UniProtKB/TrEMBL annotation:
GO molecular function: RNA binding
Function: Essential for the generation of mature 18S rRNA, specifically necessary for cleavages at sites A0, 1 and 2 of the 47S precursor. Directly interacts with U3 snoRNA.
Organism: Ornithodoros erraticus (European soft tick)
PANTHER family: PROGRAMMED CELL DEATH PROTEIN 11 PRE-RRNA PROCESSING PROTEIN RRP5, PROTEIN RRP5 HOMOLOG
Protein name according to UniProt: Protein RRP5 homolog
Keyword Heme attributed: no
Region (Disordered): 481-543, 895-935, 963-992
Biased segments, Basic and acidic residues type: 532-541, 925-934, 974-992
Repeat listed as a keyword: yes
């Protein structure tokens, strides 16, 4: 049998094929594809997605064996098929003609009748009358009509038709002949019978056509335009509209950026407008390209193409209607490669900031104009340039790889400050190289002037100047001595000049510190005062002394400073009374005391000693007058200032603020750190008030846990690396459900869940405990265990577990194994259904109190027990295989007030009974009776609800009447009818008020389908609400209703909420695995694969199989996953599965197979994870050998050293840990890495060794430091 299949993936021995049949796999071996590749595919291998006609060689339950051999395809025989459902489009078969019709022919294949439309006959101009009944033809299946189940065939040789020469999309064809007319269009003959074209009814004329025969007649000659080609039907699609024939027909190949077009306004939007260029071509004009103009729908406009995305059909176009760009004579700037320094281009301003302008051009090219490159940099740019303003720019600097473009609005080469060249040894002037003798005072210099070695006067950070701006060499005068080029860049270069003791130029010489300070100020965008200013003429101003200090300063120098101000995170100090600098709070003390702000001990006017560090001061400060900027950070103690924040290092930070449940600290002048509140070592009761306890700038210490991508370090004060059962930690409340428990956030970013029975040891105090937890939001809890499926921890806040000395009043039930028939325990009512009550007696342990076993008072009024009530129950039956418990209700501890009455209340006097009922049902202040104008009795309630509606019926009377008719047999008292009606009326009003309060309670668990319907109507895109709705039906054993709810959720949730829909799909697959059959599970699984990420759905199904102990199904599923998704994640999932089952050999074989098919970059991580599995589930010695091999091959991977050391410490292998530490410290690592290993080794010996071992570690560390110092000194010599 011949079928059509597509290449799904490339395997080791062939190709996995997709034949379009759900649940059926197909395989094409390399042997059966060799001839096809050589004859039909130019020797190239098959590509994924390539469609082929294949012959079925054999079938089995697992897959089809296919072949694409040309000989097999020619000699293929049609196999008998049971139904048309087994056919896919593309099947090639031999057909027999059975009927001749006007619109085509009828054919028979095997026992199925089909049809061939006349446009699908073998030749272009074949007619149905050219065929005879009984004639055999070869055809290809196009489709099976879904309604009539009739197959439609095509007799043309698909894939061999080519467009005739001279024709293309958009071409005009004259003398086209009308050969036939149908109700839907006309058929044209092009190129003297060489091509058939169809004209749809909508393209016959510009106006609406009711009947094509009114416009065209057979044999008529006309002119048409080709719009498209149908490669399946081997025909062309044409149009006869006069509007389409006139002008130019645009195709995707004709568009070039900058071309000018004309169109009409199709639609006006707030963000721009849509232009129409033709019947099938439209484009968009953004607001920035409107140029402040307004347009109307239908208005003709001139536009210019600024961007095109030709990969779409039709292409996506963006235009500009800005008058400046339309009239610009400069060529469009469309690509970064076209940018040449000095080129003049036109663009539009899209953003103006104090730092500069963002300008856009054609083809998504953007450029940046610094503020200094504008004409008036002193005026705010937002006031000078508006959004969408046309600007003419000059290209200054281009970085094509990073797509960075620096521009300038100064078009004249003489714009800006002239450049001074003094003592030039060699200079580039234009394209000519000139010697120092050629460059004299007063020489005019070109734009491309580069001083090669003229800046020997600069200090160490500024060794060489390379200026690209125009300059003028002139003698040093007070007005021009400080003028330099604005686009100066600094590089290294030789230094040959008169130097002082520090190695820097002598500022007392002719060309000294003045040029140095001016050049340094220009580099840092700092305005330098003119020498003629009044302040510089002040004889008291030590000009040369200050500049000499700045130029001579180097790291490690000591200075005497005076405190000018004590600010929030720094001391502002003055050097020599004129140089302003700062001392950051992190550089005040080497070891600041915990909880103290080190800046508090300083006062204005204090004299302190400061040292220059290696840290550069990166902030720009306005400098004028006597204030000069020091280029280094200063410290109160001698230090380099550098601090390496690596995981495991203890650092001290200074409190800044609290944000996102974390304390934000400053650890260096340029780096920040965060300390999560849950990672702080303080009691949980103090966490809500931590903001009041901390003071600005106080010192706080912590260990670096990890470093984020933005270089922010995350600290921790807890001595734990991961959460383990038995640990007591702080937790923060996320959500609290009075029927399920609490969802918490734990340290290290983990999640925890706590049941109602885990909150306190005495259930009678549960209500107050829940209120305290809701108010404080923080609690202390103990880790019990972890759910591997959800990665959530089960925690308990019982004081008996947290503190250890509190008496346990109500026992703790963890699993069904903790219960025995006859046990009496306390629980909380979690839900009320038709068959009874569900009572929670432990974490995820619920039992059912059947309605038939309830006491008489509860049978009479079934909903007497409210959700959340504490009850005493007795275990009647335990079904461990089904995970169910049947309970008997023994006692109710906290019932609502209405059920605390004595049984003889109903026999009391009528007047007394009326008073008691009023006290029972009216919880709010006493209701007052008022009357409306019509005389209807109304209520005035404190909730703000009003009954004063003239058309409102007496609801209480209706309720009273309904209950009177229902319970007529129970009313045996002799109360007069008038007094009974008033009592019932107030009772009904109270019931109605309670129902309204219950509906307004957001924390109340819905108890009926109507309440759930209202809930999902309020939150239609919340998967949690839908999942609760499904669980409600499952608790009542109504599986089909749960399925319908899931289907309803999938149709209701917005298609944008992919995560929410994925949650529903996961729940549906879980439901089918638990309550459905294999067939229903496979159907749900297949539908989930179509709508979600395949790997995610496969992983979820495998987790379900493992949790439900379906190991065989899980193994089969994993094998399919490994073939389809060859990724490290899948390999680790399978390895964990095999290891937990004890199939060590299968897991090891999987590792070897994974190493062969995965890329080399994943090998190290995969081997290390399998080695950890060996330690946990397999052979520890094998795990050690695996780690040893990794460290031999990758000795520089310090992370693997740390993981290996940690796992040996957990295993208790003391000697192995010492050996590993000795190897690590003997390796050649950076000093910072070695410091971590030595510190970790020392901490280990303090906990597991003795004084001698600690002393040995310290001696080893001292020896390493001495060796490193000796090597460094010898290398410097």
């Amino acid at each position: 049998m011949v079928i059509q299949a597509a290449v799904a993936s490339v395997e080791d021995h062939g190709y996995s094929m997709d034949c379009g049949i759900h649940g059926m796999e197909a395989f094409l071996s390399h042997t059966e594809s060799l001839k096809y590749l050589r004859l039909c595919n130019n020797g190239h291998p098959l590509a994924v997605g390539q469609i082929l006609r294949c012959v079925v060689l054999s079938t089995s339950e697992r897959a089809l064996q296919l072949s694409v051999s040309p000989k097999r395809l020619e000699s293929a025989q049609d196999n008998e098929v049971a139904s048309l459902d087994s056919l896919v489009p593309g099947v090639h078969a031999r057909l027999t003609v059975t009927q001749i019709r006007d619109q085509g022919i009828g054919v028979m294949w095997q026992r199925f009748e089909g049809c061939v439309h006349r446009t699908h006959l073998a030749q272009t101009w074949d007619l149905p009358q050219d065929y005879s009944v009984g004639q055999e033809v070869m055809g290809t299946l196009l489709y099976v009509h879904p309604g009539s189940q009739v197959p439609h065939w095509n007799l043309k040789a698909l894939g061999r038709w080519q467009v005739p020469d001279g024709l293309a999309v958009g071409a005009l064809v004259e003398d086209a002949k009308v050969v036939a007319i149908d109700s839907w269009g006309a058929h044209l003959e092009l190129l003297d019978g060489g091509l058939r074209a169809v004209v749809p009814k909508a393209h016959v004329a510009d106006k609406d056509v009711d009947d094509v025969r009114d416009e065209l007649t057979p044999g008529q000659k006309c002119t048409c335009r080709i719009m498209a080609f149908n490669m399946v039907d081997c025909i062309a699609v044409a149009t006869l509209k006069p509007s389409s024939l006139e002008g130019m027909h645009l195709t995707r190949d004709m568009f070039t950026l900058g071309m000018k077009l004309e169109g009409k306004v199709h639609k006006v939007l707030p963000s721009g407008m849509v232009l129409s260029l033709g019947p099938w071509m439209r484009g968009f004009v953004s607001r920035v390209h409107l140029g402040g103009r307004s347009f109307e729908v239908g208005q003709p406009v001139r536009c210019r193409l600024v961007q095109v995305e030709a990969t779409c059909d039709p292409p996506r176009l963006w235009f500009t209607c800005h008058r400046g760009l339309l009239s610009s004579r400069r060529p469009p700037f469309c690509d970064y490669a076209e940018a040449v320094p000095g080129k003049i281009v036109d663009g539009l301003v899209v953003q103006a900031t104090p730092q500069g302008l963002l300008v856009i051009f054609y083809g998504n090219v953007r450029g940046w104009v610094p503020a200094i490159e504008t004409h008036r940099s002193s005026v705010p740019l937002a006031e000078q340039y508006r959004f969408g303003q046309l600007v003419t720019c000059r290209v200054v600097l281009l970085e094509p790889e990073q797509e960075r473009l620096t521009l300038s609005l100064k078009l004249d080469v003489n714009d800006g400050v002239p450049m001074i060249v003094k003592h030039a040894e060699e200079a580039h002037i234009g394209e000519k190289r000139k010697s120092p003798e050629d460059v004299q005072e007063g020489t005019e210099m070109d734009r491309q002037c580069h001083t090669m070695a003229a800046t020997h006067l600069l200090p160490q950070p500024l060794k060489k100047i390379n200026a690209e701006d125009a300059g003028h060499v002139e003698p040093e005068t007070p007005k021009t001595a400080n003028a330099i080029a604005t686009s100066t860049t600094v590089t290294d270069g030789p230094q040959e000049t008169t130097k002082g003791d520090s190695g820097f130029p002598d500022p007392t010489k002719e060309h000294g510190a003045s040029e140095v300070a001016e050049l340094w100020s220009s580099k840092h965008s700092v305005p330098v005062q003119d020498d003629t200013s009044p302040r510089k003429k002040d004889p008291k101003f030590p000009h040369h002394k200050v500049r000499n200090l700045v130029s001579r300063m180097k790291p490690g120098d000591k200075f005497e400073a005076t405190v000018l101000a004590v600010e929030k995170f720094q001391l502002r100090v003055s050097l020599l009374g004129d140089v302003t600098a700062r001392v950051h709070v992190t550089l005040v003390d080497a070891q600041p005391p915990e909880g103290v702000n080190p800046l508090q001990r300083f006062k204005v006017g204090d004299t302190v000693d400061v040292y220059a560090t290696n840290l550069k001061f990166k902030h720009t400060m306005p400098i004028s007058g006597r204030e000069l900027l020091v280029p280094f950070e200063l410290s109160h103690f001698q230090t380099s200032g550098e601090r390496n924040l690596m995981p495991g290092v203890t650092v001290t930070g200074f409190f800044s603020h609290i944000e996102a449940n974390s304390v934000h600290l400053t650890v260096t002048p340029v780096r920040k750190a965060i300390l999560p509140l849950l990672s702080m070592d303080i009691p949980a009761s103090k966490l809500p008030f931590i903001a009041k306890q901390l003071k600005k700038g106080q010192a706080m210490s912590g260990v670096v846990r990890k470093v984020h991508e933005d270089d922010t370090a995350e600290l921790s004060q807890l001595d734990i690396e991961d959460l383990q059962p038995g640990q007591v930690v702080n937790a923060r409340l996320i959500s609290l459900r009075y029927t399920e428990g609490a969802l918490l956030v734990l340290p290290l970013g983990c999640r925890g869940r706590m049941g109602l029975t885990d909150i306190c040891d005495d259930f009678s105090k549960l209500e107050s405990a829940l209120k305290d937890l809701s108010d404080s939001q923080y609690t202390r809890c103990q880790i019990l265990d972890m759910n591997p499926t959800t990665q959530e921890y089960h925690v308990s806040a019982r004081k008996s577990r947290v503190q250890g000395f509190t008496e346990v009043i109500d026992r703790e039930v963890a699993t069904l194994h903790d219960l025995q028939v006859g046990d009496t325990v306390k629980g909380i009512v979690s839900s009320c259904i038709k068959v009874g009550y569900f009572v929670n007696i432990g974490f995820q342990v619920d039992g059912l109190v059947h309605r038939n076993r309830l006491p008489a008072i509860h049978k009479h009024n079934f909903k007497a027990l409210k959700v959340g009530s504490v009850v005493v129950v007795k275990v009647a039956q335990i079904l461990k295989n089904m995970g169910k418990v049947d309970l008997d209700l023994v006692e109710t501890l906290d019932q609502p007030t209405s059920y605390n009455r004595k049984p003889d209340d109903s026999q009391s006097s009528p007047r007394k009974r009326k008073s008691s009922e009023t006290e029972i049902w009216c919880d709010e202040p006493q209701a007052k009776e008022v009357k409306t104008e019509e005389g209807l009795p109304t209520l005035s309630l404190s909730e703000g609800f009003s009954w004063n509606v003239t058309t409102a019926p007496d609801l209480s009377r209706l309720v009273m009447t309904a209950e009177t008719e229902k319970d007529d047999s129970d009313n045996e008292d002799d109360v007069p009818k008038q007094r009974k009606t008033a009592a019932e009326k107030k009772k009904a009003e109270a019931e109605l008020r309670q129902k309204e309060r219950a509906l307004m309670d957001q924390t109340r668990e819905p108890e009926t389908e109507d309440e759930f319907d209202r809930l999902v109507l309020a939150s239609p895109n919340s998967s949690i609400v839908w999942l609760r709705y499904m669980a409600f039906h499952l608790r009542q054993a109504e599986v089909e209703k749960a399925r319908r709810v899931a289907d309803r959720a999938l149709h209701t949730i917005s298609f944008r909420e992919e995560t929410e829909k994925l949650n529903i799909w996961k729940a549906l697959v879980t439901l089918e695995n638990t309550y459905g059959t294999k067939e229903t599970l496979q159907v749900a699984f297949g539908e989930a694969l179509k709508c979600n990420d395949g790997l995610t759905v496969h992983k979820h199904l495998m987790q379900i199989y493992v949790a439900s102990s379906k190991n065989e199904e899980a193994e089969q599923l994993f094998k399919r996953m490994f073939i389809k998704y060859r990724s490290p994640e899948v390999c680790l999932l399978g390895g964990t599965f095999y290891m937990k089952l004890g199939k060590l050999e299968e897991a090891r074989a999987l590792l070897q197979r994974a190493l062969k098919c995965l890329e080399r970059q994943h090998h190290v991580g995969l081997i290390s994870k399998f080695a950890l599995m060996e330690f946990k589930y397999g052979d520890q010695e094998r795990g050690k050998s695996m780690f040893d091999n990794i460290l031999v091959n990758y000795p520089k991977r310090t992370d693997l050293w740390s993981v290996y050391i940690d796992i040996l410490i957990k295993q208790g292998d003391v000697e192995g840990v010492r050996t590993l530490f000795a190897k690590a410290t003997s390796s050649k690592f950076q000093p910072t890495k070695m410091k971590i290993f030595f510190k970790k080794w020392l901490d280990f010996e303090k906990g597991h060794g003795d004084e001698r071992s600690v002393r040995d570690v310290r001696e080893h560390a001292v020896k390493y430091v001495e060796q490193t110092s000796t090597f460094t000194s010898s290398k410097s010599k």
